[in-house]
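User: Could you check the structure of this?
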Amino acid sequence: MTKTLLAEFTARQGAEDEVARLIREYALKVREEEGNLAFDVYTKTATPRAYWIFEAYRDEDAFQAHLNAPYGAPFNAALVPLIEEDASVLTFLDPLATHP
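Assistant: Sure, the predicted structure tokens are below.
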């Protein structure tokens, strides 16, 4: 079953350019992962410092491989001091069944 989630965080005032640079570089790496189906980065129109990242992975194994990728921990370590939250806020999503 596909593993789908929404990651959210808000760049601190003054850190917008660095956060944008980090997430652009990270997105390129994640999109190359064998099990990655989507890694789409958005900012909120009304609050451009607020990020929403839609992620989808082939299955739980692909998601675990993503979590264990060698570039993940350095990315998160660099990101945390630049965002308002303690870490990215993750919301896991399930598809709505189209048939009862």
